Amino acid sequence: MTTEVFKSDFLGESYSVSTLKNGLKVFVFEKPQYASAYAVFGTKYGSIDIKFRTDSQQDFTEVPAGIAHFLEHKLFESEEGDAFQKFGENGAYANAYTSFDRTGYLFSCTDRLESNLTHLLSFVSDPYFTEETVAKEQGIIGQEIKMYDDSPDWRVFFNMLTAIYHHNPVRTDIAGTVESIAQITPELLYSCYNTFYHPSNMFLCIAGNVETQKVLEIAEKVITTEGTQTIESFEPDEPDTVREAYCEQSLDVAKPLFNFGYKQKVEGGVGFKTRLATELLLEIMAGHSSNFYTELVQQELINPEFSFEHFTGRSYSVIIFSGESKDPRAVAEKIKAEVARIRAEGIDEEAFTRAKRKSFGQTVMMFNSVEGICSALTECAMRREELFEFEQAYADLTSDDLMEVVYNMDDSKTALSVINPLS
Amino acid sequence: MEKIKITDNCELLFVKNDRFKTTRMTLNFFLPLTEEGYSELAILPFFLTSCNSEYKTPELLNRRLNELYGAVISGTTEKVGDNRRVGFSVSALNDRYSIDGSKPMIDAYKLLCSTVFSPSIGEDGLFCTQDIDREKRLFCENIQAEKNDKRAWARSRCEGEVFKGSPYGQPDLGTLDGAEAITREGVFAAWQRLVERGVLSAVVVGESIPDGFVDHLKSCLGKIERCPEELIRSSAQPADGELYEVTDREDISQGKLVIGVKIGAMSSPKDRAALAVANDLLGGGTYSKFFTVVREQLHLCYYCSSRVERRKGIMYIESGVEAENAYKAKDAILQQLESMKKGEFSDKDINSSKMTLTNSVRTCEDTASVIDRWYSAAELEDYLLTPEEYRRLICEVTREDVAAAAAAFSPRIVYYLLPKEENR
Questions:
Q1: Which of A354, A370, A397 to mutate to test the interface with B (most CBs of B within 10 A)?
Q2: Nearest to A287 by CA among A302, A305, A307, A303
Q3: Are B368 and A368 within 8 A, CB to CB?
Q4: Chain A within 8 Å of B383 (Cβ-Cβ)?
Q5: Which of A146, A150, A306, A348 has the highest number of chain B CBs within 10 A, making it the mutation to test binding with B?
Q6: Which of A91, A305, B122, B143 could form a Cys-Cys staple with B359, CB 3.0–4.6 A?
Q7: Which of A36, A324, A368 sits opposite B20 (nearest CB)?
């Protein structure tokens, strides 16, 4: 096992990253003055991993959409019963999530940390799938899918991704469809599990009232799988263009909802500097302190629901503007015009300084929360980054870095997704 | 927790906590809920946090907040029993994290006080027409958007049915009709009522009370002739009567089911702790009856949980159901409620519940906004418990205490939000 310790004198904080012999990365951020601890045991496996092979396999295996999420649900079940039960008995809060590129199992507790951590690592390492339990879960997840069908925010987002991407599996709903999950079998679940739940593809992040040594002892004791494994996920060729520039759906909403996305280039992932530059650019361009935002509110085109984000993972990157508007097409045109204006006029230096201060302050505030720290460590594990690199990154960032992002915002690679009220 | 007198009718609660890199300061106002001025009071936290006499537009105010390292000013409102709370908070970085020697904490509390006590006023002595028009439009859109979240919408509809005819029966932000009728004069009168007649308490969560905050607050309050109104300490409870059903149909694919259950009177903190355990055993953790039986064994829903509004004497059981399972789910839920009333729960489950609740109470010490919220209704508490005192009370809850709390459960209403017939 190797261990590296990272320190920030400015924050007065430190954390360690250990790599076990089997490749499992363990991130521990001690906050002894806190009452609670928060832990995530995760794998670099999400809804986009639907075609893959390992270094010992020649052919790719293709699996139904939604299987990573299905697997997450099923792992909570063992021959002895429901894994939630033990957390409940220990008074811990437990949950799990599946996103596009990762799956995480988590708990938060103030007591019985060792027992909870042992249980977390154990149940995730002990799959149990049968025909009967798979059939039962198909019904439960079918209801979850229906719940999302009623969620306008969810639909407007996925419709936008479907318009932006031709083939990238990020365009498919994380939970899949009722039809795709009907094809899931215990054998397919074991195949996915054995590929992606190998320690060398996993990470454990824990923050709060914990002792690093204790965490490592438990991890080494429970995770006994040996050797390492390399995984190759099939990345379909994705054209540079968008599939369609506009799409719409009608749901029971009071006012039209929209997502307007700019497809971005992804070459081996999107680095921290680019993500930071994008965050600051968007704040300057469309944040609540911008002229642009103020004008659109005055013109009654948007309201405070208006927001933006840089949605990015290993094979996808989209800058998204979202909100409610009586005229989403007009908002999209205004956004394009604002991008063109910044491209021509450059970045206002005062606005750049203010945006930098805001972002820096909010990053420091993140260290108030053990959950926030754990989530940031998860990001580090996924992207192979270092948590405290933000201090230097803010110092080094210039408005030229933001202009790079603007130059990559291409009007011909945009898609507008709208949810209209039912007529 | 330390109490500091600001004026004869205002106290500051200081909750010392050196875990955070920020300090959170909150001013909470309380007024009895009234039909008159309901919407005007509800819009105030939105309006007042949008601009003030120094930063006259949202754009300028937000620029200032960005300069203060992303300090956040928030305004919130909610019903607390038959009273309304209107709260204003600011969270700012502790000064030592400023990289240019500025003092974001001091500037932040000045901004908080300006937000509340020094709004932007036009030449005619009222709020400016353009500011009110802007916030009124946004407020109306906010109310219209409430329907997008079907789960919250269903609960709000059920609450409205149970407390129909009283101000509490209105949603927190009021109705669209009420919002559309808002006038400049009405909002100004609501602000005057808030600062002159609202019961005020301040909360600070952080390493220390920022230098000068107490004096600054005293100075702001010294300029106002304050005469706080009497709050409603004994809120109206759900009426007794037969269980009845209400059904709405909408263009949705998954149905929602909300059951309103009258709970017993709670005369002591001990009763409150017992009720918390009873509620958790019924619809809280994974050992709860709703999770284990209704969801896992019978597969009748995607979620089923319960929550208590203790000041209004009601528990809401909320569930997401397939339309064809809605009536079966209702029967199963009511059956579990009966089983709970008969004391059919294990000691093991009680222990799990107590562990979960104490875990949750201890965890709240790790989040400034949660600590702040814990003390936000201090003015309305007969017994102001610290989280630690509450945790101890939960530990002491017995099987008999839980049974006594559960015995008083009495379902009053079943509310269904179901897909339209043609969508099924």
A1: A354
A2: A307
A3: yes
A4: no
A5: A150
A6: A91
A7: A368
ipTM over 0.85: yes
- On chain A, the residues whose CB falls within 8 A of the CB of B251 are 251-252, 422
Query: Cβ contacts (< 8 Å) between A85 and chain B: which residues?
Result: 286-287
User: Which residues of chain A are under the pLDDT cut of 70?
Assistant: none
Q: Report whether A370 contacts A37 (CB < 8 A).
A: yes
Q: Rounded to whole angstroms, how far apart are CA atoms B319 and B256?
A: 6
- The answer to whether B19 contacts A287, with C-beta atoms less than 8 Å apart, is no
Partners of B26 in beta bridges: B89, B203
Q: Tens digits of per-residue pLDDT, B298-312?
A: 989 889 999 999 999
For residue range A387-408, what is the model confidence (pLDDT) as tens digits? 999 999 999 999 999 999 999 9
Residue in B301, B285, B286 with CA at minimum distance from that of residue A147: B301
- Count A/B contacts: CB-CB distance under 8 Å: 178
Q: How many helices (H) does chain A have, and how many strands (E)?
A: 15, 17
- The mean-pLDDT minimum among A171-175, B87-91, B294-298 falls in B294-298
Confidence label for B423 from pLDDT (cuts 50, 70 and 90): low
Contacts of A33 in chain B (CB under 8 A): 18-19
State the nearest Cα–Cα gap between B134 and chain A, in angstroms: 7
DSSP B365-398: GG-HHHHHHHHHTGGG-SS---HHHHHHHHHH--
Confidence grade of residue B422 (pLDDT, cut at 50, 70, 90): low
Tens digits of per-residue pLDDT, B394-417?
Answer: 999 999 999 999 999 999 999 999
Tens digit of each residue's pLDDT (9 = 90 or more) over B227-237: 999 999 989 99
Do the chains contact at A303 and B322, CB–CB below 8 Å?
no
- Could B359 and A111 be called an inter-chain contact, meaning their C-beta atoms sit closer than 8 Å? yes
Buried b (16+ CB within 10 A) or exposed e, A312-343: bbbbbbbbbbbbbbebbeebbebbeebbeebe
Instruction: Find the catalytic residue in A30, A72, A137, A324.
Output: A72
Share of chain B above pLDDT 70, in %: 99
For residues B227-251, give the mean pLDDT: 94
3-state helix, strand, coil in chain B (%, to 5): 50, 20, 30
| Dist. CA B327–CA B213, nearest whole Å | 56
Q: Region B10-37: what's the mean pLDDT?
A: 96
Active site residue A72: yes
